[in-house]
Amino acid sequence: MSYKQIPDYPESYSSGNIISRLLDSLGNRYYWATENLSDKDLQYQPSKEAMSMYKTIEHIYWLSILIVNAPQNVSSIRLTTDDLSKFTFDSLREETLNNIKKARELCCKKTEEEIEKFNIIIQNDKDADKREFPFWHAINGPLSDTLYHTGQIVSFRRTTGNPINSKYNVFLGKTIE
After folding, report:
1. 167 partner at 20 to 30 Å CA-CA among 3, 82, 149, 155?
2. Cα–Cα distances in angstroms (integers) from residue 161 to residues 30, 148, 157, 165, in the given order
């Protein structure tokens, strides 16, 4: 699944399927927001105080780690710039999309009782104490934040003169010819 097109609907409105559909929407929007970005786009920074588009994409990658680790109850250890230096833009984009897809698969068809056992677990470094939060925080934290930042990328693209594909329909989750 590349998220070029949003997948078919789940068969029911279960808790896990609703979260999965939200993740599908996120993956689809992120796919198109980051499709065909140029070096000029990636370097764009709206002000000295703001993150560049590339730094925003790095931040989204970190958020995708929090998202995929929550259904697994795995600690997410804060990444440093050095941790991210091994990635090219293309590999960072691919890993982010893979994390969203895996999180989607981990949530799909889960019951309310199963989701209640999901936790978002954060550590600042390997030796730090863990901070654990219920899955609700994954929704109002990294999931919502990733949607927010994906919208920033769309806006930044317009500013740099490289808007997303005009044939992409966000409501339908696919391109319209």
Report:
1. 149
2. 18, 20, 6, 12
* Residue-level pLDDT at 124: 78
Q: What pLDDT is recorded for position 81?
A: 63
Report the b/e string of 79-98 with b at 16+ CB within 10 A.
eeeeebeebebeebbeebbe
Run of H or E including 21: helix 15-34
* Distance (Å, whole) CA 112 – CA 155: 36
Strand-pair category, 119-123 with 131-134 = antiparallel
Q: CA–CA separation, 127 vs 137, rounded Å?
A: 23
Among candidates 86, 38, 27, which has minimal Cα distance to 60?
27
Residue 103 CA to residue 105 CA, distance in Å, equals 5
d(CA 150, CA 163): 13
Three-class secondary structure of residue 117 per DSSP = coil
pLDDT in tens, 73-131: 999 887 766 678 888 999 999 999 999 999 999 999 999 999 999 999 998 777 778 89
Which two structure tokens, joined as six digits, stand for 98? 């893979």
Residue with tokens 């992120």: 30
Distance, CA of 80 to chain centre? 18
pLDDT at 61 over 70: yes
* Residue 164 C-alpha from the chain's centroid: 17
142's tokens: 């990294």
